[in-house]
Amino acid sequence: MDGKGWERVRMARLGGSSASRGREAAQLRQVSSQTVRLGRVQPQAPSHRTIYCNDREANLLARFKVCGHIIYGVSIPRICWHLSYFFCKILIYLVALLLFQVNSVSTTKYNILTFLPKGLFEQFRRVANLYFLMISILSTTPISPVSPVTNVVPLSLVLLVSLIKEAFEDWKRFQNDIAINSTPVDVLQGENWETVSWRKLQVGDIIRTANLDGETNLKIRKALERTWDYVFPEKASEFKGEIQCEQPNNSLYTFTGNLIVENQTLPLSPNQILLRGCSLRNTVHIVGAVIFTGHETKVMMNSMSVPSKRSTLERKLDKLILTLFGGLFFMCLIGAIGSGVFINRKYYYLGLFEDVEQQFNPSNRFVVSILTMFTLITLYSTIIPISLYVSIEMIKFIQCAQFINKDLRMYHAETNTPALARTSNLNEELGQVEYIFSDKTGTLTRNLMEFFKCSIGGVSYGVGITEIERGQAQREGRALNEIQKSDTVVYEKGFNFDDDRIMRGAWRNERDPEIFKEFFRCLALCHTVLPEGDESPEKIVYQAASPDEAALVTAAKHFGFFFYRRTPTTVQLRESHVEKMGNIQDVSYEILNVLEFNSTRKRQSVVCRYPNGRLVLYCKGADNVIYERLAGTNQDIKRLTREHLEQFGSSGLRTLCLAYRDLTIDTYENWNEKFVQAKSSLRDREKKLDEVAEMIEKDLILIGSTAIEDKLQEGVPDCIDTLSRAGIKIWVLTGDKMETAINIAYACNLINNDMKQLIITSETDAIREAEEKGDPVEISRVIRDSVSHDLKRCLEEAQQDLHIFGQKLALVIDGKCLMYALDPSFRVDLLKLSLNCSSVVCCRVSPLQKAQVTSLVKKGARRITLSIGDGANDVSMIQAAHVGVGISGLEGMQAVMASDFAIAQFRFLKDLLLVHGRWSYIRLCKVITYFFYKNLTFTLTQFWFTFHTGFSGQRFYDDWFQSLYNVIFTALPVIILGLFDKDVSASLAKKYPQLYKEGIRNTYFKWAVVGVWAFFAFYQSLIFYYFTTTASENGHNSSGKIFGLWDVSTMAFTCVVITVNLRLLMACNSITRWHHLSISGSILAWFVFIFIYSGVMTPNDRQENVYFTIYVLMSTFYFYLTLLLVPIVALFGDFLYLGLQRWFFPYNYQIVQEIHRDEVDSISRTEFLEIGNHLTPDEARSYAIAQLPREKSKHTGFAFDSPGYESFFASQAGVYVPQKAWDVARRASVRSSKRTSQR
Amino acid sequence: MNVPTADPALEADAAVERKKKSKKPKYSRFTQQELPACKPLLTPTIVISTFALIGILFIPIGLASLSASENVVEIVYRYDTECIPQQSQDDKVAFIQSSATDKTCRTTLTVPKNMKAPVHIYYELYNFYQNHRRYVKNRNDKQLRSKEYELETTNCAPEATTVDGSPIVPCGLIAWSLFNDTYSFAIQNKAIEVNKKNIAWQSDKDEKFGSDVYPKNFQQGGLIGGAKLNESIPLSEQEDLIVWMRTAALPQFRKLYGRIETDLVANEQISVTIQNNYNTYSFEGEKKLVLSTTSWIGGKNDFLGVAYLTVGSLCLFLALAFIVLYLLKPRTLGDPSYLSWNRNPDRH
């Protein structure tokens, strides 16, 4: 029923005008090719393949056949794949397999032979490395002013580090592969199961497997009946058959094939396939035939197409590098022109005779300029920070492996899941997220419905206090008298309720026991739940379409109305305390009619006959629907219940009203006639059924209401609140219905009463009317018009409310409308509207739309987006966003496989974004700007020198100085900065979430920031060059001896190294001993180096050398005076700037630092973290409370949500219903169900 | 049919197994990013005291350097124009290049103040690019260092070999363009001895220029670049060459020529005889003769002293200015009202 709407839409689309169809198709195509890679089915080979089951030889034969075809080049060989066959018990397990391959899977990038060439090739695909390779080559030519050493050494070091990292990562992948490939599996060999390792599995093998690691959502898989008997090895070995199936592809939800057994052709559908990576839930093992193996399995074929993402910061970095190239070119141009002008034969001492080489030949100044250009490019190559990329990589790698993955605050003890950074590319992206797109089920909520409260006959029961109530109370400063639950309290999944007034039969003593009976019977009778397992209260398992229903029936059980058996016509209850206390009796109720739930009716009724002949209609449904149909009596109960409904709603509970109606036999008979008629009518059956239902669902008597807690994950409201104060806008994209979605949005603080809700829905009369007429073109047109109208209206309202009244807005839109709103012509409006809203809820959206919405914001608004989800339906959205986060630790692995980061709980987002993301971003920004600064400074000193060398391109520094500058003398401290710098502690970052906004605004890597660094680089380079040279002109000690070029340059270089390292220290917010070690180590390294380098004379000494310069220098006062003066003067500007900036224009983080300047960083105590799950400090909570709704919510919700309903029951009944996207999305609610309905 | 159900024992085992394999990360200060750290804040107090400290430190150093530099007595005499006879002023290059002209040039210098021995004699060249890329590398250190490498003339073109191919020692443009003006001094017709020993750095003499390397084929070509060398003296003793070959950083440089080992008294007239041989006229260069004493800081160079004084007083000034500013408009540390979201609460 749920899919019906979609069915209609699809019809509409199919039958729509060709223009609209074309547009839609184009849109779909566009989206599928750009954003949703996972869902796209790769082109298939033209033929199918055949596998002979349980017959290794036959499969082997076929393998040679195929080889032959390929070798002899027969045109498009009709490849005869072999098939093996199939086998099953309860589930058929089917793994895709390529003939040539055994099942071993390799995810490694390299092997020993290919490592070097392939690895190097990968490295040189980076522009920076390629650039330095070219510079290195250039520096071997006479054109170069520097020896090859200058560029080759850093380049090789950088390559070495990168290759080591690659090798390390590949080694880990290799280890992982080994572990997977050697998983034991039982293979049928003759008549016995033999355990072989996973990797030796072949196509056609019949295997028994108990547990395959990883997993997706719970899905029902069933073997063909024909194969049910082949469970035991003796029997299985007899099995011979042939499978014809499609070629391997990456579509997870489709499979077509046939099993041919004894000339019988049986169709195989996805229902009979198990994919690699699944695990079994309710059966110990299954027997099946292998169809695809290794890289042909669907999981592997999918995992290859995961797009790699680059962070926005890195893309901006590219721009910076490009700017540097521009600067380089400019500097070289100046130098080149200068050299052309300068060169002249009058400088006879330069030996510029007729036969001088072209570069210095004054007869052709143009050539001189061109060649000098190249000379200068080599000389100034240091302006491009060669070690930047490798440093960033290392920093990010450690940040991921050591900080994110090992953060105890993000470790979830219940599921034993630590956080996992699956890519190290995006750390800093986490610090700039502005939009979060969240799935609902399983992400915000636990998908765990618990019976929490109820109102019976105008009295509210249930002592529990929801998170939201607790928050409200705390905000208002009143103490909650939390009633301790009695010791005997029962707790079961789906039931979290206690009240001594009604539990354990106590309801008998209440004012009106009769109404309690009605209430409990309504709960126990009015549903579509199937009981399973032993018929004892402890062991029974309820199979329900939605967890809500199961929770209600479970509640009835605990109230003493135990529903234990359903037959086609009856429901049997074991009732306690009905006649008198302690009395237990089995009662069988005849169910005469079931008026099913659907989204228009929003209610569900049963007509049942008591054993004593009483005819009752029990009805439960949304409050507004029920209230419309109540009899006019008993206003008190109605009023009280209404109040309770509001209370429950504001506590974030999902409410349902219960009502009944006694029927006379006449009334019933009359009605039943019509009902039977309607039921058997061939046209408009549903509509007629609805109409008939209307006739009996009236004059109801209100019993009360139930309140179910859709248990939010721990800390979700607090987390959402913190994130929204951090300037992050959270959108909920869910497949749920609008009411449910709004309800959850209220519960987790996304929407509150202060906000104005803008609702764009397809549930309007006009649309419904059009849909009833059934003309697809008309439907399409009507919805389109309505969407267009709504968008315009909302946009107007939004602009008015937002700008004039400053009211916060929330947009709620459903999937059908979204489909039209995403049309290019409305897209701009939609974007504008949604950007104005503080929160957006999209309900009833398909996975594809989730991705579309994500890319709408990503591309349209150019903001940084993050998607978080846990199921397969979130995969496309996760991949479409800048950062994809998967919820790990539960069943689904698919979302995690597609994600960039995996966390166990939604609330960990707070740590991931506000702490890790923010720090990474700030650190990376500092690292990048610092790299930029230090290389610019260094190169500019060189540049100033050029002016004094007749633009000849003479190098100022020794080759080795220059080559080690980036990789030794200034390498480590910046990495330490990138790892350890901490402006505010983790707890402060969470306490002041607003600090995160600086990341969103990209405060630390703006051109202005870069400009300031550039300015000081410029200033410092002038100081270095002019101070050291100007001061060097005379003799410098009493012997009156004079310095040469290399003395001065050694002096300058010493100053540069010291200053640049000290400048780093000034950029640090927190200084650990690692900072001290690395900074003093770097400076020391320079001195050690120069002492040795200039102290040792080798036979093959360098030309024009720096021999003994440092000793010469150190024998003069000039050295010490300059060493003190130059760094201080150079840093003077920076210091002044930083001081003034903090004084007059402090950053927020600086104020926070000051507020907490005297506090010692709280060190997390290990024992505290041991608990693992209750980390939210009271403090954080009180902040959250401040943001809670100001007044009681007027919102009440109701709670039927069963998108997977249709196919769920269909498959229970053994009928195959094509799966819809919803079904895949939906995890079935019951994890521990022990069997399917085989009996 | 027989439906196998999950074995509870197995499941329990699995649970235990899972417990054992806890993936809980180990606590360490490193991974939890809680390394002990000091967190310096650039508060106004620190800014002010840093500036004050620098000022207090720098001003004395500056004064000391400056006074040391002031104590140095220096006589600078530019002679490149004056040493060309009147009739040759229009074509100085021809004059200097002609072997026939008499290049002796006499002048008198007055000693401004008492100059304590040793008085250093420098020549100073201007617009001479000893740091030109072609020039700097135009030498062969190996050849200079040892006799074995006599044939080593890489990089020395065009002054690498003679026409017949035998190597020039020392080869290269630097040696070839060796400065060849000479100076002699007399006071009241009494010649003052110029000590030309120990004008090069010891390390150069010991290691870079071999004591077994003798000049060979030097300045024998068609073009004479500069001074000739006595072929009987090893390079390690040729200090003029060694000094010359420690190429200067800038196109304006001084090089040590020798020392006068006697004190010069104020107002004494020194007559200087200059052999004006070196051609700086081609490239519009300048030549200067410098007589200078030294102090601990070296020759006369006010730069360091002035720089120290300027920076020091600037810092003191800033420190004072900030103190005033601080008194007038104090900045409360950690005032939450500075937080952007408190400043304009509407705008976020």
Automatic annotation (TrEMBL), chain A:
Active site: 439 (4-aspartylphosphate intermediate)
Reaction(s) catalysed by this chain's protein: ATP + H2O + phospholipidSide 1 = ADP + phosphate + phospholipidSide 2
Stored Gene3D superfamilies: Calcium-transporting ATPase, cytoplasmic domain N, HAD superfamily/HAD-like
Domain of life: Eukaryota
Enzyme's top EC category: translocase
GO terms for cellular component: endoplasmic reticulum; Golgi membrane; plasma membrane; trans-Golgi network
Cofactor(s) needed by this chain: Mg(2+)
Protein location: Endomembrane system; Membrane
One of the record's GO molecular function terms: flippase activity
One BP term from GO: phospholipid translocation
Positions that bind Mg(2+): 439, 441, 870, 874
The keyword Metal-binding belongs to this UniProt entry's keyword annotation: yes
EC number, as in UniProt: 7.6.2.1
InterPro entries: ATPase_P-typ_cyto_dom_N (IPR023299), ATPase_P-typ_P_site (IPR018303), ATPase_P-typ_TM_dom_sf (IPR023298), ATPase_P-typ_transduc_dom_A_sf (IPR008250), HAD-like_sf (IPR036412), HAD_sf (IPR023214), P-type_ATPase_IV (IPR006539), P-type_ATPase_N (IPR032631)
Binding-site residues, ATP: 439-441, 549, 597, 620, 654, 734-736, 844, 850, 873-874
P-type ATPase C-terminal domain boundaries: 896-1146
A Pfam family this chain is assigned to: Cation_ATPase
Every P-type ATPase N-terminal domain range: 100-151
Bilayer topology: Multi-pass membrane protein
Family named by the database record: Belongs to the cation transport ATPase (P-type) (TC 3.A.3) family. Type IV subfamily.
NCBIfam families reported in the protein's UniProt record: ATPase-Plipid (TIGR01652), ATPase_P-type (TIGR01494)
Descriptive protein name: Phospholipid-transporting ATPase
Organism, scientific name: Zingiber officinale (Ginger)
